[in-house]
Design brief:
Layout lengths: L1 E6 L4 E8 L4 E8 L3 H12 L3 E5 L4 H11 L5 E4 L4 H12 L21 H17 L1
Parallel strand pairs: 1-4, 4-5
Antiparallel strand pairs: 1-2, 2-3
Length: 133
Amino acid sequence: MIVAAIDPGREKCGVAVVAENGDVLEQSVVATERLADEMAARVRRFSPERILLGNGTTSRAAETAIREALPEIPVEIVDEYRTTDDARRAYWKAHPPTGWRRFLPTGMQVPPVPVDDFVAVLLAQRYLTHRNA
């Protein structure tokens, strides 16, 4: 099973495509206004069985856009509780600080880029873990 996940936001959305074993096939941050087109491209490329949509900011608008653009793919709303904190930790694990920043605890640092894509990865991985439990 392959799933696509979206962390919706007002200006940008995190998007991820994740395989059943948890492997990340793709992750990125896209402009909200391009979300439907970006998701359609990922559906063509990866053929996910379902789209997971975080229940946070602007989730209703994102849900409407996705359901209109991709009516053939089931959309499931999933809980985003504490994903931003977990995404920051995942970011620092994937991109450890360098230079003098490596001496500061990562919990005291803010990633230099948005972590919405890491949130989308976490949404997908949590869904797949609970589904397979």
